[in-house]
Amino acid sequence: MELTETQMLPLAQQRTWDALNDTDVLRACIPGCESIEPDGEHAYLVVLSAAVGPVKARFKGRLQQTDIDAPNSYNVVFEGQGGAAGFAKGSARVTLEPDGDTATKLTYTASAQVGGKLAQIGSRLIDGAARKIAGEFFKRFGAQVAGVGEGEGEGDGEGATTADDDEAAATEAAPPNTESTDAADAESGGDAPKRKKSWKAWISKF
Q1: In whole angstroms, what is the distance from residue 118 CA to residue 126 CA?
Q2: Range from 9-18, 57-66, 141-150 carrying the lowest mean pLDDT
Q3: φ and ψ at 71, to 5 degrees?
Q4: Residue 16, exposed/middle/buried by CB under 10 A (0-12, 13-18, 19+)?
Q5: Widest CA span in the chain
Q6: What's the pTM value of the predicted model, to 2 decimals?
Q7: Which of 4, 61, 132, 163 gets the highest tally of CB atoms within 10 A of its CB?
């Protein structure tokens, strides 16, 4: 399997690099990731659950970064075991290029080999699953890095705005309700004499 993709990320190059080396960020962004822990210099132990076609398994693997040129590029060598599901191993080249001061173009080229049940389900399913996982990772990663340093302040502001809007809406809603009640009372009061008169007119017929 070979996979090449380019992603535009809304963050400066150095901050993107830092996020790619932050285990908390990676844990939140890798689909199905249960844990990711340092295992020596520039290496990580990863546990994740994944489904590739009809094959679902819990994989335990190791990632090793090599040829590091911070904050521009690095290689990743990975291998993982999924029990009866089989194994996967391969490598990827990741490069970062600044796009102005507030955005970064990330390009990666990955190649992998699989064995066991994974090797029996066909390359198209494997490629499709890999692209889906990669797409979900970068979707989460983009959202994660976009919120760095902004989430708490914006969240509080949005919460306050929502509360104010709700209070204002309730205040604005009160007059129409009062008017509706008054209108209903007036209508009821207006109808009462008419109904009384109609009753008398009906009685007078007998």
Answers
A1: 8
A2: 141-150
A3: -100, 40
A4: buried
A5: 109
A6: 0.67
A7: 61
Element housing 47 (H / E): strand 43-52
**H or E, element range at 204:** helix 151-204
Q: Is the peptide bond before 175 cis (omega within 30 degrees of 0)?
A: no
Give yes or no for a contact between 126 and 118, defined as CB atoms under 8 angstroms apart.
yes
Asked if residues 10 and 103 have their Cβ atoms less than 8 Å apart, the reply is: yes
Structural contact between residues 82 and 118, judged by C-beta atoms closer than 8 angstroms: yes
**pLDDT given at position 129:** 87
Q: Cα dihedral angle (18, 21, 23, 25), rounded to 10 degrees?
A: 50
Strands 87-98 and 104-115: antiparallel
Question: Rounded distance, CA 103 to CA 12, Å?
Answer: 5
C-alpha–C-alpha distance, residues 34 and 27, integer Å: 7
At residue 80's C-alpha, the angle toward residues 79 and 83, to 5°, is 150
Per-chain mean pLDDT for the chain: 77
The 10s digit of each residue's pLDDT in 34-54 is 999 999 999 999 999 988 888
